[in-house]
């Protein structure tokens, strides 16, 4: 059965990276109906409005089985709307942002190989958008943490550990300072953990975790690392340095009945049109989307092909030690993935 995918090409280098991903999906004859739709800062600059996402796009999203979002630009100007990603996560209750952190053979980081998964609560916390300016000298942001949201993302984190055959889950908090909000989050995780007696729970304060991630990253191999929105956004980006670059980090945003897939990095406007950004994160986000849509064979072929192209190091982008263009690396992956399915 053909599945429907809403495709947002994004801003900056996003469209060319999305083209790389689509090239790979076509090469493996993915059974998806792609509907390209508008969204992002560049669209908003032309059309204006109170959202980076037009009404027509919301209609496409609501009538699709999944969404793929290329990198989009989110300016810091308080007079601009909230980000595309945050808007979609909140609208569809995509409460679990999951970013696997796994070393690729041939692209080992300077601190050694790692293999763990970051799970980030993605609908509330400091990303709730509850901010206001009191006067010229004071502004406030509300860190919203609820038991319901904490429990549902904790369940997803425990399930991720079980699925991978892992027995360790780390909860990242700052509970000694954020006594109310982080205690509510941590206690919710503990409550869920009673149903998973084979998964051991350990707590790290965010500052210590950030230090240990650099001092002894192998400490976290075969762990699921769970935390609130801002903490895990920062931690997962720090962790990307362990596997080469943010260009390697694919991600998915999951709710109970919908998902959005995206590379973890931003739109890099300075690289727009240069065909040089590492397409790995975008291509593997697309492969993960196929897995979500129950096309396991094609998903596996793309993952294996990507890993082999990186390990071979012949047709890779500059950040991986090569001189290939984004499109050239994508073509190499596409051809190899297609061969695996013959």
Walk me through what this model shows.
The protein is of the alpha/beta class. The chain folds into two domains: 1-79 and 258-342, Isopropylmalate Dehydrogenase (3-Layer(aba) Sandwich), CATH 3.40.718.10; 109-243, Isopropylmalate Dehydrogenase (3-Layer(aba) Sandwich), CATH 3.40.718. The chain is 39% helix and 19% strand. The chain contains eleven helices and twelve strands. It has helices at 14-27, 41-47, 55-62, 84-91, 147-164, 181-193, 206-215, 229-240, 280-292, 296-312, 326-340; strands at residues 3-8, 32-37, 66-69, 96-102, 115-121, 131-135, 138-141, 168-173, 200-205, 224-227, 250-254, 259-263. The strands form two sheets. The protein has a ten-stranded mixed sheet with strand order 2-1-3-12-11-4-5-10-8-9, sandwiched between helices. α7 (206-215) runs parallel beside α8 and α9 runs antiparallel to α10. The radius of gyration is 20 Å and the shape is globular. 50% of the residues are buried.
Spell out the key features of this protein.
342 residues; alpha/beta; Isopropylmalate Dehydrogenase; 2 domains; 10-stranded mixed sheet; two-stranded antiparallel sheet; globular
CATH architecture of the largest domain: 3-Layer(aba) Sandwich
Reading off the top of the CATH hierarchy, the class of the largest domain is best stated as Alpha Beta
The domain count comes to 2
* N→C terminal distance: 20 Å
Number of strands: 12
- Overall shape: it is globular
Give the CATH H-level superfamily of the largest domain.
Isopropylmalate Dehydrogenase
Q: How large a portion of the residues is in β-strands, by DSSP E?
A: 15-25%
Looking across the biggest beta sheet, what order are the strands in? 2-1-3-12-11-4-5-10-8-9
Poorly predicted spans? none
The number of helical segments is 11
